Write the structure tokens for this entry.
Amino acid sequence: MADQVYDLIVIGAGPGGYVAAIRAAQLGFSVAVVEKRATLGGVCLNEGCIPSKALLDSSEYFALARDDFARHGIMIDPPLLDLEQMLKRKDDVVKRLTDGVAYLFKKHRIVHIPGVAKLGGARSDGLQTVPVTMPDSPAIPRVLLGKKVLLATGSQAMELPGIPFDGQLVVSAREALAFDQVPEQLLVVGAGYVGLELGSVWRRLGSQVTVVEAMTKPLPATDGQVTDVIIKALKKQGLTFMLEATVTRIAPENGRAVVTISSAEAVRELIFDKVLVATGRQPLTAGLGLPQIGVTQDDRGRIVVDANYQTTVTGIYALGDLIPGPMLAHKAMEEGVAFAERLAGQAAEVDYAYIPGVVYTWPEAAGVGKTEEQLREASTPYSVGRSNFLGNGRARCLGETEGFVKVLAHAQTGRLLGVHIVGARASELIGEAVTAMSFGGTAADLGLTIHAHPTLSEAIKEAALDVNKQAIHG
């Protein structure tokens, strides 16, 4: 009996990989997915986007009950934290979603193969070989045959130079999502969205949180005024920031970490219970065998691909965190769809100019398109409209008046160039801006759109109207 030949073999079942597999199966391809984890969904579902948001929501409820409910006439004296139950709920959310992906694989007849895959190269007949080390027989790899292979193995957290993760004192986001007790003193190295989100979680639950950042300002890719609001809010919540500072040494002592922090002003030694390193991520390509078959990578380890996501080797493709662009789950998902549709001969593309970014702190921040800083640097003529949530009726009712919506439009054409939101549920509000910009909308288009009252989304309409100084409530 001849070995089965798959139309597509996907290595990695994260957001990019599993979406590509499902869309390819919908288009009639036979698909096999190799995943080394026990569960599907990759970093995002298992130890990233989903569990972090579950803990962010749970910790927000706890902080509201402790600090804010009295303003609403709800008296709790005091709320009690059951961390074990909070983590159990987080794990349950993850399981339901990863089980959901497994169900979708069965629905679309996608073959799930647990194991560690690498590229074996093409045979003389052009078929790609993919040796897979199976958990139950590691000594004898199973060799899969496919017409095409998609690499979707994602990324991994970067270590500090000379300071490896130990899983106990020096940890990545994976471990920081599962502390069995609230650390009294937590150091977060890196003031990007991962560090600020997880720092927020543990601060709300009682940690004293210090954030060390090498740059002059956190969240460098975020609109400057938005960042100012976030950092001011986080400082008010109790986070301490040390900017233009670096961690040069971490030494364990009596179960705690003695950390040397260097800045232009001084070199300090501080003691922490846990150190979360969140300084960035890098493509996870080790063990795939890229050099052996000639797949080209750039100077940052990212795989070079063409418009169809094909690498420098015919029949081998890559997407998501493995290739240039923001390391975001929704970017990888869109690439998964576009890849599969292009493989089927359809016209499909990802509009990289309109990929939204979100920071799930409290308040949240979300943006799409250009920032004011980028427009000024490019000498692009633009107009600004702004609406503060302080004047929004729904925000007043919620007691969430911090923040604003900013609309940036071309000074001559009115076309939307960027929308930036900081405030309650900014992550949900940004979708309207992405839609409008994707269709080439203008500030006038947003301003003419009827929004229900009272809603937070009215702030988008008001900011759009303010571009032409027509705001009613501004």
About this structure: The CA atoms of residues 197 and 360 lie 6 Å apart.
